[in-house]
Amino acid sequence: MAETVNQIQTIQTPDEAVGAVNRTRRFKYFNFPFLIVAGLLALYGLAVVYSAVHGNEDYSFSRQAGGVVVGAVLMLVLFRVDYRQLSHFLVFFIIINVVLILMPHVPGIGVNTMGATSWVKIGPLPQLQPGEFAKVTVILLDAAVVARYGGRLDEPKEFLKSLGIMMIPFVCIMTQPDLGTGLVYIFIAGIALLVGGAKPKFILILLGVAAVGIIGLFTLDPILDNAMGHDVLLKEYQRARLLVFLDNSYDPEGDGYNLQQAQIAIGSGGLFGKGYMNATQSTLGYLPEAPTDFIFCVLAEELGFVGALGLLLLYTALLLICFHIAYNAADLFGTVIVMCVAGMWLFQILENIGMTCGLMPITGIPLPFVSFGSSFMVVNFILLGVVGSVWAHSTR
Amino acid sequence: MLFAIIAGIITLVVLALVALVVLRRRSESAASKLVSKQQVNAIDTVGVVAEEQSTGFGTKAAVQVPTETGVTGTPAEPLRGRFVAVGVFAAAVFGSLTAKLWSMQVMQQAEFARKAQQNLYTTVYKPAPRGQVYEFGGEALVKNRSAYTVLAEAEVANNREVVTRLSALLGIPSAVVRQRILNASSGAQNTRVVASDASLRNLAFIGEHADAFPGVSCENRTTRVYPYGTLAAHVLGYTGTVSEEELKNVPEGRDIQSGDIVGKNGIEASFDSTLSGDHGARTMLIDAGGNVLEVLSETAPTRGNDVYLTIKGAVQRVADETVAAYVMGGVCTATSVVCLDVRDGSVVAMANYPTYAPESFIGGISQDVWEEFNTEKSHYPLMNRAIAGAYPAASTFKAFTAMAGLTHHIIDHKSKTDCKGIWTGFGEAFPQACWELNGHGEQDVVLGIANSCDSFFYDVGKGFFDHADELGLTAMQDYIQEYGFGRQTGIDLYGEASGRIPTPEWKAEYFKDAPEESAWQGGDFTNMVIGQGYVLTTPLQIACGYAGIATGTVYKPHLLKEVRNSLGQVVVEHKPEVLYVPEMDEEHIKLVRKGLREVMTINDYDRFVSEGVKYQVAGKTGTAEVFGKQDYSLFACYAPYDDPKYVVACVCEEGPTTYTSSIPMSLAVLEAAMAYDDGTLEKTFEPTHWTTQRADPEKLKKEQEEQYSEESEYYDYYDYSSYGEDFSYAPEGRTD
Questions:
Q1: Which residues of chain B make contact with A284, given a CB cutoff of 8 A?
Q2: What residue spans define the domains of chain A?
Q3: Same domain? B426 vs B300
Q4: What pLDDT digit, counting tens, does each position of B689-704 carry?
């Protein structure tokens, strides 16, 4: 106890010091740069979605706007919630993740569309994608796992144990199957391990194993397909997408059609675009899935390189703010949460924009704050709320 | 591209720097300002003792609680490097995306913009009706008929129900219906032809049940009709869908779209640009589903111009009937007859047999029929023998060689040859036979032509050889070419053969691999002088040549009378074109014409001329021997003798005797041409009378067989090996 007394004595003016640190913010829950960037992104996204769904009866703009409103309310509520309490609910997060992700398999509420059981329809509620909502709990789960190691995950056994827990949501989502969301989960886990202090050696080994695994998958797949007589590992369309990725001009009328049209949309936009609401590629139906996966093409076609760069700058601002919040979070749990959210967005931006311009293989990953989808929008706002909560409960 | 890469790298570096600077500044300001924070953190840890905590999943050990904090005092401080790693990754992502977008939207903008335009606008062409073809008197030989075409959009192929309904309605197997819809040869956005000649009943059904046939439409298009079947088939030619090769070599000023119908042969081909109209074009804004959103411009197709021919339908009908009757009667295997108006070169009739029905090419000819048309057995019915068949001129050549001899003073009206049957002008070792082995006795030029005495002409040929020092070795050939032999006449049809008049130069080239054969010898003259050896001519050339003999002028043969536009106004009128005016002395030509007239009288070929004919006919026969086949007979004639109007040339393949084949055939056509002018020719075009009074095939065949048995001995005489080897007697040689 003598030591602690000494420590206290070293502080000349304790009250002043404590006061300086714990000085009440003028607006405790309003990080204005953060809210402004998030708000601008949401509005930009809504504007692009409006143009993309305009005159298309399959999509409802009001539903998207409703998603933004619901998400904003949830976000503001979450600002006040003390995220720190959540770090103790690790087992709960495992259970809730499994339940959420496997929910579409429940007969009666599960909806099967386009070969994947990813949606649920409960009573009068709008059709929802639990896998999207699970992103929130996956982030909390992964953060909770690594936070327990206090930034030093040096033991191989513990590393593997953490990895094992983080893989549970991925395994669950692959039963739907939904590779796009599964890849997001894996990327979240990777960021959690990286930021959570896993030994760099482990992460490098993990990357190596993943690379070998992917190469092995593509080599083994045709052999297994031949041996079994049906698709075993990769589906036919996935192989085709990969071929298109490797050669952008592959089969422009068939498997390469989407990429071809997406590139035409982006490229024809030019420096300043064709003007808002003037995208011919999407309004005339040449661009498939324009409001959802290929929304970026609509933006790039209408607003050009300048508009696309504007979006990228907003994303950069959002990520920088997130990095700042993460760096100054009150605890490691908060740091990892925010970095996982930022990392997830980064991965989605890379994959979504990358696939539309041929830098990445085509996968169904939406563009944060822009792609049509009210579940997706709500989830993004919930994540904003979580980030805000971390900020609100940090002292700096 | 390089610029894009550099821009990308710069962006990447800038972003990385921004990230680093921001992080650095944050940490610095935090460090400088918050010394007290460190102290407060120390307060926070008052009384806190490191404890083992549960990891929450079964283990207790190896759990570490942060025991020290960094400079700024945040829990993330020790993980600074991890932030930098994520930051660099983020900078790399944004940098490469920016670079790629720059490259696509700025560097390659034009290319992508072009592709976007391509997506949007589609021009659909509607074929224009072709012009019609009329004969001299204004009767249409090729007409158009409207045909109801059932069209389907490409996506109908995937609609099983509609395909099945179409199949049941049109009576086409569903697989074929699907195949036709999938056939993208007419362009991705165009509708596809399912049935090109649907019945009105089916059309009405589709119209009434439009709901059951989504994407199916009907259109009124035109197709060719040949009211008189095979009449003048080789002149008219046929049409077909444009081939890929033709699409590559579209003539200037002609607009051909894939899937168009173009002329393939005959007048349809040579006047293709005249007959073809201008496409109707419709430029539309199209969405990805192929739906028309807006029609931006539309022009109606304009019909092509009509072509009026010099062919006189009724004469042509007689010619077609005659050639058919003689071949079908077994007199010969194939034949060709051509009739010219000597006064301007217009082709009055041009008939060949075997022939074909141009109709069989409508909607594409079947493979079987096409192959059948190209077999030796079928005697190549698609071939227009009148212009493309190259035959030895045989004795029909004697009129020209006689003129050559007279013009070059090799002979004159007093020159005589005593024909003994075997001519030994080049010595006893090299005998040449006259067709009359018993000999004609003393022959002058008129009798030589009338009797077709080979011996007389051998002397003419020998004369040219003997006078080679003064005249050169091509004097005879040069003269003969003044009648149009050895070169294309330039008739307005494609596929004309040029024939051949042998010269020493040609022979040297032809036998360049056998130098011992290549020297020009006296025998080459004596063979050529009777139209044998290496001489090749087309029936049209013979007709032109005889027109020259008859009138002194060779007009360019032509089929075009005039072109009229869709309003009926004459836009092009053919003007007679003088091809050659052969050098001829009035006295000389009179001798030759007299000889040609005496051919008819001495041999009593006048007996084949119909009773009541008031004009006189002059003509010349020929019999050509073709290796491995029965003889070909030829006849050229013109009438009236004293005021020539029409000339007819006829070749009968394997119809060895002139007076059972080529003479009656030629006279039938010649008389028809004359009767047409008198108005006595029946103006029917239907070639139904396959046998005429003149040509009773049964009788003719019998007569011919008798003739052959009489001549068998004569054939034995022709043992080619009996001639001296160095004597270039062509194996094809025999004349009557």
A1: 119-120, 285-288, 293
A2: 32-201+271-392
A3: no
A4: 444 444 455 665 666 5
